[in-house]
Amino acid sequence: MTNSELNRLKDKAFQWFGIFCTLIGLVVLGIFLINILIDGLGRIDWEFLNNLPSRRAHRAGIYTAWIGTLWILTLSSLIAFPLGIAAGVYLEEYGKKNRLSNFLEVNISNLAGVPSIIYGLLGLEIFGRVFGLGGSLLTGALTLALLILPIIIVTTREAIKAVPRSIRDASFALGASKWQTIWYQVLPASFGGVLTGVILALSRAVGEAAPLIVIGALAYVPFAPKSPLDEFTVLPIQIFNWISRPQAAFATNAAAAIIILLIITFTLNGIAVYLRYRWQKRVKW
Amino acid sequence: MSKKTYKLEAKDLNAYYGSFHALKNINIQMEEKAVTAFIGPSGCGKSTFLRTLNRMNDYIEGFRVEGDILLDGRDIYNRTVRVDELRKEVGMVFQKPNPFPKTIFENVVYGLKIQGIKDKKVLTETAERSLRQTALWDEVKDKLDKSALALSGGQQQRLCIARALAISPSVILMDEPTSALDPISTAKIEELIYELKEHYTIVIVTHNMQQAGRVSDHTAFFYMGELVEFAKTRTMFTSPKHERTQNYITGRFG
After folding, report:
1. Residue B61, class by beta-carbon neighbours within 10 Å (0-12 exposed, 13-18 middle, 19+ buried)?
2. Which of residues 164-183 of A touch B (CB under 8 A)?
3. Which of A51, A172, A210, B53 lies in the 20 to 30 Å Cα band around A216?
4. In this complex, do B98 and A284 lie within 8 Å of one another by their Cβ atoms?
5. Tens-digit pLDDT profile for chain B (254 aa)?
6. Do B31 and B8 meet the contact criterion of CB atoms below 8 Å apart?
7. Which residues of B touch A174 (CB under 8 A)?
8. CA distances (Å), B55 to each of A210, A251, B88, B177, B229, in order?
9. Cβ pair B115:A175 closer than 8 A
10. What's the rounded Cα separation, in Å, for the pair B184 and A241?
11. Residue A72: closest CA among A268, A233, A254
C-alpha cells in the first residue's frame, strides 16, 4: 500500500469515527425521547395540566408545578437579565485591563462551573434566612438568577466583543460619548447574541431541581402561587418526587411531566436559535 | 514672518504608545479650506498623527501626547476642551466604509440625534443637504429607510462622508478613504474632496502618490515618526528637498 493510499484510508476512517461519535449522543437522546413519549404521552390531557397535586396518581396534576416554573422563569430573568448585561457591558467596555479585571474574569468563569446545589445552599442562607424570604418564589428566583448570571455575563461579553471596532470609531468620531455609543450602537448590534445567551441560560434554569430542593421548594403545594412571596414547586421537583414513589402510575405521571418540561426547554432553545438566525441576517459587517 | 493664522497647527508634538515613540517633534501648519495630504510608508506615524487631530487615540491604553495641537489657535488637548465638542468641529472618515447597521437616514442623522436634536424637519433637511453634498441624494432618495449595508462600497463611503458633514464640522479628516474602493468610486470621492475644500479644511492620509498629487494643496511626508518634508504638493512632487522623499514618491521604497 502506498503512502497516499494509507493517508486516504486514514481520512476515511476518521470520517466514519466522527460520524459514529456524533450519532452516539443523538441515538441515546432519541431512545430516551421515544421511551418517555410511549410512557407519558397518553397521560397528558387537559386535566393533567389543570389538576392540583394529589396522593392518588390518576387525579394528580401538574398545575402548581408549571405555574411555579413560569413564575420562576419570569422572576429570575427579570433579575438576571439587567444585572448580567450591565456586568457584561462594564467588564467589556469600561473595565481597564489590570489585575482586578483579570481576577474578576477568572472568577466569573469559575462561578459558571460551581455545582448548582452550592448555589442552593447559598440561597437558603442568604435569601431564605438572612433576608427572611423563606422557601418563597423570590428566594428560588434569586438563587437561580445567581446560578445563570455567569452564563449571561460571559455571553454578553462575547456578543459585545463581536461588534467591530470600526462601528465604535464611527460613533465616537461623530461626537458620541461612550455611553451613547454603547446604547445606540453596541447594544442594538449585539442584542441578538445577548438574548440568545439569556434564553439558553433560562433553559438551563428551568431544569434545575437541586438548588430549589435545598431552599425548601416543596413537592406538595396545595395551591398555585399568587405572589412572589408564596411557597412554590416546579416541574423538575414534581418529577423527582413522583419518580421516587413506588407505584407505577406515578412513574407514568413523571413521564408525562417530563414531556411538558421538554416542551418548555425545546421552545426556549428554538426561540434562541431563531433569534440568532434573525440577528445574523440583519447585521452583517 | 507673516502673522497668518492657521486652521490646524502642531507645535513640538510628541506621541507615545507606551514606550514606543510614535511621533517625534512634529511641527506643521495646515491652511484653512485647503487639502493637506499625509504620505509615508506603513507605520510612519501619519495615521497616528491624523488621529491626534480629533483625539481618536484617547481610548487607546498607554497612548500619550506631549506638545500642542491648535485648532483655530486653541489647544485641543487642553483640559477645558470637551472631546465631543471637538469632534463636532473635526469630523472623520475611515479607511473602510463603516456605516452603522441601520437605515441610510438613521446613519446621516446619527450625529444630530446624539446631540439631542429631535425636530423631524431639521433632521430631514440636514439629511437631504448632506446627501446632496456628497452626490448621493439622487441615488438613495427613494430608499432612505433601507439598510445602509445594502449600498455599494463607494456609496457607503460617500454616506460616511455625508454623515460627517451632517454635524457641520469645519475640518474633515480622511484616513485612506479610498483604499478599499474600486477606481470609479475612488474618482468620485476625489472629485468630492475637490468640491468640499471650498467649505472645509481637509486632511487626508493616503498610500496613493497619484492621489496625493491630484487632490492635495500641501503634502507632508512622514518617515519613522518624523515629519521629513512638508511643502506645496507641486513643489514636493517636482523638486523634493530630501533624498528620502524623492525615493519614496518615485516608488523606490515604501
Report:
1. exposed
2. 164, 166-167, 169-177, 180
3. A51
4. no
5. 455 678 999 999 999 999 999 999 999 999 999 999 999 999 899 999 999 999 999 888 889 999 999 999 999 999 899 999 999 999 999 999 999 999 999 999 999 999 999 999 999 999 999 999 999 999 999 999 999 999 999 999 999 999 999 999 999 999 999 999 999 999 999 999 999 999 999 999 999 999 999 999 999 999 999 999 999 999 999 999 999 999 998 887 75
6. no
7. 87, 91, 110-111, 114, 163-164, 167
8. 54, 69, 12, 18, 24
9. yes
10. 73
11. A233
Q: How far is the C-alpha of A51 from the C-alpha of A61, rounded, in Å?
A: 4
Instruction: Provide φ and ψ at A231, rounded to 5°.
Output: -70, 160
Taking the C-alpha atoms of residue A224 and residue A64, their distance in angstroms, rounded to an integer, is 5
Amino acid found at A87: A
Interface test with A, best of B56, B86, B87, B100 (most A CBs within 10 A): B100
Which secondary structure element, helix H or strand E, spans residue A189, and what is its range? helix A187-205
Judge: B87–A173 Cβ closer than 8 Å, yes or no: yes
- Beta strand B201-205 pairing with B35-39: parallel
Nearest CA of chain A to the CA of B27: how many Å? 24
Chain-chain contact of A166 with B100 (C-beta, under 8 angstroms): no
Question: Which of B59, B98, B167 lies closest to A175 in CB terms?
Answer: B167
Rounded to whole angstroms, the Cα distance separating A140 from A213 reads 9
Cell triple for residue B244?
528620502
Is the CB of residue A281 less than 8 Å away from at least one CB of chain B? no
Note the pTM of the prediction, 2 decimals: 0.83
H/E element holding B201? Answer: strand B201-205
Counting one residue from chain A and one from chain B, the pairs whose CB atoms sit within 8 A come to 64
ipTM confidence score: 0.92
Nearest to B88 among A164, A175, A285 (CB): A175
